[in-house]
Structure formats: C-alpha cells, structure tokens
Specification:
Number of strands of chain A: 0
Radius of gyration of chain A: 23 Å
CATH topology of the largest domain in chain A: Helicase, Ruva Protein, domain 3
Shape of chain A: flat
Radius of gyration of chain B: 22 Å
Oligomer: heterodimer
Order of helices and strands of chain B: HEEHEHEHEHEEH
CATH architecture of chain B: 3-Layer(aba) Sandwich
Largest sheet of chain B: 5 strands, mixed
Order of helices and strands of chain A: HHHHH
Strand content of chain A: under 5%
Structural class of chain A: mainly alpha
Number of domains of chain A: 2
Number of helices of chain B: 6
Largest interface: A-B, 18 and 18 residues
Helix content of chain A: 55-70%
Number of domains of chain B: 1
CATH topology of chain B: Glutaredoxin
Distance between the termini of chain B: 69 Å
C-alpha cells in the first residue's frame, strides 16, 4: 500500500514537473521580439503583416519543441540581434552587461569612503 | 579627494557622451549583412500550381539563382518587374519567384500582363517560408550561388545599380 502510494506520488509530481517544463508562453516570446516594420512596438503589440507571420512561426517552433532561447536564437540568426529586445551576451555588448555592476561596486566604494572621511 | 571627485565626474560625463554618440550614430535599420556568406536555409516550398515542391536541390542545378519574393498587391514589385524581365534573359542566372501572401488569380493576371520572368514559380501563402530567408517586407531578392551560399540580399525593388551588380557577379564566372 505504502509502495503504491509512493509510486503514485512520484508519477504525479514527475508528470506535473515535466508538464511545467514544456509549457512555453508564446505571448512572452512575442513581447520580447521587436516588430521590425513598426515604430517601437513588439510583435505582441503589433497587428502588422510581419508580426502576424512571426507569431505563426513562433507557434510552429514551439510545436516543434524548441526552447525559448532557441526561438530567440533562430530569430536573431534571421533578422539580427535587433529583433530581440533583450540583447544576448556576447563580446560586442559585454560592456552593456558588465558596466552597471562595475559602477555599482565602485560607486558604493566611493560613497562609503567619502562618508567615512567626512566623519 | 577633490581631485578624485573631479576625475570621476569627468569620466562619467565622457562616458555618457560616448554612449550617446554610439547610440545616435548606430544604424538601427534592418541590416542584411549577417545573412551574406551564410548557407541558404533548408526549405521546402510549394510550387505555384501546387503540383510539387522546390528545395535547396533545385538551386544547386544552376550557377546562380535569384530568389525573388513578390506579390500582385505590392506596388514596388511592379517597379522592379522590368529589371527581372531583363535578368531572365541571362543564361547564367535562374530566377525563383516566390509569390508572397497573394491570391492566385491576381498573381496570374499580374504575370500575364507584365510577363513571367521566373524559371521556377512557388508560393508562400502564409509567409512562414519567408521568415527562413529573413524577409520582412516585399519585394526582396536573394542572390545565391551553386554552393548554396547567399552572395547578396536586396531589400526593396531592384534598381538599375542592383541589376548592374548582379550582372557583374554572374558574368565573373
């Protein structure tokens, strides 16, 4: 009885966790893709012909089992990094990602030493 | 201490100016340069009469192929059509026309009125195939060689300069 219960719990939770892993929200992807023919709109916001086509392709890619990252990578490959709102980490934009942290650390250190000296 | 503050403020000021300069001079328009020298993507596109499919193998048969996305409702496609007609006379070049989100009857009328420059004619009813080629509006054309490498991509209607450019490439063989 105990074993059956354990098996049931294992199957239930493993299925639940697998189901959770496989769900990709297409709207989230649409919001993170830029409409190239619109003025500052995402694919999600736009009703343009281009946006409609991209929505269809995103749906197909999800159905094919592609992950969110793979879909962004596919789109960047076809249209360049400009299509993705969240830029990917690479050498060209590494400063963009690293500088805020450097500023935060140095800024904190600077303020701390400044206040300490005043006291 | 005063000196450090002044240097820091100057550094931040120069940094902000630098960011503004880079951002404002950056070309944010869609750039096709990342597709050049890449392989033609795998595709399977329905022929216009829906009797068969075209794939990368059909491109391999020719020295050069110009893949042209067009539609009867697209006014700039009419502008570039005479250039396509001229290009269709070149032996070294095959033209694959992909009719984009169009109605069959209107596409047929377009071709019967202006002439058919296409050696192969396909259709992309919902535009999904066009995404594989990085198309975001029509007309767009892609020049591909026998090795299935994208040599050039033309966004917008083909101009006389583009025509000369294509001729130069295909006659350099």
């Amino acid at each position: 009885m105990k074993l059956n219960l354990l098996i049931f719990i294992f199957i239930f939770f493993s299925k639940f966790s697998f189901a959770k892993e496989n769900i990709i929200d297409p709207n989230l992807i649409h919001k993170n893709l830029r409409c190239l023919v619109c003025q500052g709109q995402s694919i999600s916001d736009s009703n343009s012909d281009f946006a409609q086509t991209i929505k269809l392709v995103v749906k197909d890619l999800i159905d094919e089992g592609k992950t969110e990252e793979e879909i962004y990578s596919f789109m960047s490959d076809k249209y360049g990094d400009w299509i993705v709102f969240k830029p990917q980490f690479n050498i060209q934009n590494s400063l963009l990602w690293v500088l805020p942290y450097i500023f935060l650390i140095f800024g904190g250190f600077f303020i701390f030493s400044f206040l300490k000296k005043r006291q | 201490m005063q000196k450090i503050i002044k240097i820091t403020i100057l550094f931040i000021f120069l940094f902000v100016i630098g960011i503004f300069y880079v951002s404002l001079t950056r070309d944010t328009n869609y750039n096709t340069s990342n597709l050049i020298n890449k392989d033609v993507p795998e595709f399977q596109i329905t022929s216009f009469d829906e009797s068969n499919f075209f794939t990368r193998d059909d491109i391999k048969k020719n020295n050069y192929t110009l893949i042209n996305f067009w539609a009867s409702w697209c006014a700039p496609c009419k502008i570039e059509h005479p250039i396509l007609m001229k290009l269709s006379q070149k032996k070294n070049l095959m033209i694959l026309g992909i009719n984009f989100k169009d109605k069959e009857l209107q596409a047929k009328t377009f071709l019967s009125e202006l002439g058919n420059p296409y050696d192969l004619l396909a259709k992309d009813k919902n535009g999904k195939q066009s995404v594989k080629f990085g198309i975001y509006g029509i007309p767009e054309s892609i020049l591909v060689n026998k090795e299935l490498i994208i040599i050039q991509k033309f966004v917008g209607p083909l101009s006389v300069n583009d025509y000369n450019n294509i001729i130069k490439i295909i006659e350099s063989l």
